[in-house]
Amino acid sequence: MKIKLNGEVLELQDGATVADICTKLGIDNKGIAFAIDSEVVVRDDWEETKLTDGVEVMMIRAACGG
Amino acid sequence: MSEKLIIAGREFNSRLFLGTGKFSSNDLMKASISASETEMVTVAMKRISLSDANDDMLKHIVKDNIQLLPNTSGVRDAKEAVFAAKMSREAFGTNWLKLEIHPDPRYLLPDSIETLKATEELVKLGFVVLPYCQADPVLCKRLEEAGAATVMPLAAPIGSNKGLRTEDFLKIIIEQANVPVVVDAGIGAPSHAAAAMELGADACLVNTAIAVAGDPVRMAVAFRDAVKCGREAYEAGLGAVTAGEAVASSPLTSFLG
Fold this sequence. Notes:
heterodimer; A: mainly beta; Ubiquitin-like (UB roll); five-stranded mixed beta sheet; 1 helix; 5 strands; 12% helix; B: alpha/beta; three-stranded parallel beta sheet; globular
């Protein structure tokens, strides 16, 4: 299936969860956060939150700023 | 013995807070943070793009003695600020937040109404809210009443390096505040920071003036010392300013006869 991650297409296996996005991108799960449909997905729910085809996911991390 | 700065029950040995924007490299940012002896460092948030998914600046900042202060830069109103705050809590594992709502990109001035609204809501949600705000004494009292952990009035527009343009209002804010007053934005030189501390500000937040300096690490040292000096002078008690005429500091008896 394909999801939209910050507007970019990301291909994941069917039944993938929010946690699988980190695995797919090969990044540490520290210092990041996810939202689906403007609702924050709390860290404890990443493993259980299943993604669906075409879903729009926001993923943020730290940036330099004052 | 210098008075310690305490915010929301946490004690800080340094009264200088640092922003992490505009450094030319992560190494320079890290060295400047270290040289400044700061214990409070701000970070922003950005959307990850697939091409730079591994670009993690956080590893350059995280240290046991440093309180991360995520900001809400980029939000336009209270609703977006609350969303950003929740995202930051998940990402950084802290409920501390620099609330900044400045919808106008030209002057980056904070929206007082939305800032107050967001403070009220975020405090109820358990956040430790440090709002960046106008140097407005009435607003600062309202933010304090809403449960803000500090108030952070601006000295001048963000990144302008203009110094204490709001000095008269900062004095009133400091006089009235029952929470720490952090002078944020516009501090362009160590002398500005020292002046803010001499007024009785509890801390200064500095970013641009250090990050864009010819030698950011040495400028971080200069700000570190300026903040210490200004605080020391405030606690020591500055002498009164006279109306105009000189007041002799040496005896005026004519010892030569």
